[in-house]
Specification:
Elements (H helix, E strand, L loop, with lengths): L24 H15 L8 H37 L3 E2 L1 E2 L6 H11 L3 H34 L1 H14 L8 H7 L3 H26 L3 H9 L4 H39 L4 H10 L3 H29 L1 H4 L8
Antiparallel strand pairs: 1-2
Helix pairs in contact: 3-11, 4-5, 4-7, 4-9, 4-10, 6-7, 7-9, 8-9, 9-10, 9-11, 10-11
Length: about 325
C-alpha cells in the first residue's frame, strides 16, 4: 500500500503546516528550476538595445573619425607653416595663400549668389553627363559583354575612341552641339562613359557560366537572364566603374569649363587665376575636392544599399 510520501502529497503536520516534501522528487526538481532561474540573467530591456547599438557604432566610427581629423590636421599644418615661412626648395610657396587668407575669402564668398550659382551649374552638368554615361555605359556594356555580335560590331569603335582625352574633344564638341552648355555636358559624358563601359564588360565576362546555363535550363528569356542573373552578378564591377567614372567626369568638366565655360566652379577657378586672386584659386580647388568627395560617397552608399553582402567585406587580407 502506497504512502502519502510516495504519492508526493502534502501531509498535514501536527502544527497544521504542510509537510516538507524533502523526499519528494518533484520538490527537488522544483528547487533546481528555481536556482537555475535565479542564476539566469534577465533579458535586456527594450531601452537598452538602442544604447548598445549606439555604443557599438561609436566603437567602430570614432577611430576612423579621429584618424581622418589627424590626417587633415597634418595637411593643414604643413600648408600653414609652408606659407608662413615662405618655403622655397624647388617647390615655391611664396605666392601660395595661407589657410587664414583662404578662410577669410571663403567667408566673403559665402554671401555671394554668383559663387553658389557656379557650384549649382557644375553639379547640374555632372549629374546630367554622368547620368547619361551610366545609362549608356551599363546598357552597352551588358550587350557587348554578353553577345559576340555586339562585341564584334561595337567594341572596335569604342577602343578607337577611348584613348582620345576628353579635353581633346572640346573643339569638336563646340562644332557638334548647338550650345556651349550641351558641349560641356557632352565632354563630361565622354569622361565617365568609357570607365563605366569597360568595367561593365569586365563584370559580364566574370559571371560564372554555370549560372547562365542554369537560368537557361529553367526557361529564362534573354531579357530576364540579363536582368536577374548577369546584371546582379556584375554589380561589383559596375560600381567600380561608376566610382572611377565619377572622378574622370570631374576632371573633364573642370577642364571644359576652364576652356569654354562661362559658369561653373572650373570657370570660377580660372577667372580667379586671371584676376590674380590666389585665395579664390585655392577655394575653387577645395570646392571641387569636396563636391567630388560627396559624389563618390553617394556612389559608395548606393553600392552598399544594393550590395549589402559587400559592405562589411575585407579584401586582400586588410585589417
Amino acid at each position: 500500500m502506497q504512502t502519502a510520501a510516495s504519492l508526493n502529497l502534502d501531509v498535514e503536520q501536527p502544527g497544521g503546516q504542510p509537510g516538507d516534501m524533502a523526499e519528494g522528487p518533484n520538490l527537488a526538481r522544483a528547487r533546481k528550476a528555481e536556482s537555475a532561474a535565479a542564476a539566469t540573467p534577465a533579458p535586456a530591456q527594450p531601452a537598452e538595445v538602442p544604447v548598445r547599438r549606439i555604443a557599438a557604432w561609436l566603437r567602430v566610427t570614432l577611430p576612423k573619425l579621429l584618424t581622418t581629423m589627424l590626417s587633415l590636421g597634418l595637411f593643414v599644418a604643413f600648408w600653414y607653416f609652408a606659407t608662413k615661412y615662405k618655403w622655397d626648395f624647388y617647390i615655391r610657396f611664396t605666392n601660395i595663400p595661407s589657410p587664414g587668407e583662404v578662410l577669410d575669402n571663403l567667408a566673403a564668398l559665402a554671401h555671394s549668389d554668383k559663387f553658389y550659382n557656379n557650384m549649382y551649374v557644375s553639379v547640374r552638368r555632372i549629374l546630367l553627363g554622368f547620368g547619361i554615361a551610366t545609362v549608356f555605359g551599363v546598357a552597352l556594356g551588358l550587350l557587348v559583354g554578353q553577345y559576340r555580335a555586339a562585341r564584334a560590331l561595337l567594341f572596335p569603335v569604342f577602343e578607337t575612341l577611348r584613348p582620345i582625352p576628353a579635353i581633346a574633344w572640346v573643339p569638336m564638341a563646340i562644332m557638334l552641339w548647338p550650345s556651349n552648355e550641351t558641349s560641356i555636358v557632352f565632354i563630361t559624358f565622354l569622361g565617365s562613359f568609357f570607365p563605366i563601359l569597360l568595367n561593365t564588360i569586365h563584370g559580364v565576362n566574370s559571371v560564372d557560366p554555370v549560372l547562365l546555363r542554369a537560368a537557361r535550363c529553367l526557361g529564362a528569356t534573354e531579357f530576364r537572364l540579363l536582368r536577374q542573373v548577369v546584371l546582379p552578378a556584375s554589380l561589383p564591377h559596375i560600381f567600380t566603374g561608376l566610382a572611377i567614372g565619377m572622378g574622370v567626369a570631374w576632371v573633364s568638366l573642370i577642364a571644359a569649363e576652364m576652356i569654354s565655360g562661362q559658369y561653373g566652379i572650373g570657370y570660377f577657378t580660372w577667372e580667379a587665376y586671371s584676376l590674380i586672386e590666389y585665395a579664390d584659386i585655392a577655394i575653387g580647388m577645395i570646392v571641387i575636392g569636396v563636391l567630388g568627395l560627396l559624389c563618390s560617397g553617394g556612389i559608395r552608399l548606393l553600392g552598399n544599399l544594393l550590395m549589402p553582402w559587400m559592405a562589411n567585406s575585407t579584401h586582400g587580407g586588410q585589417k
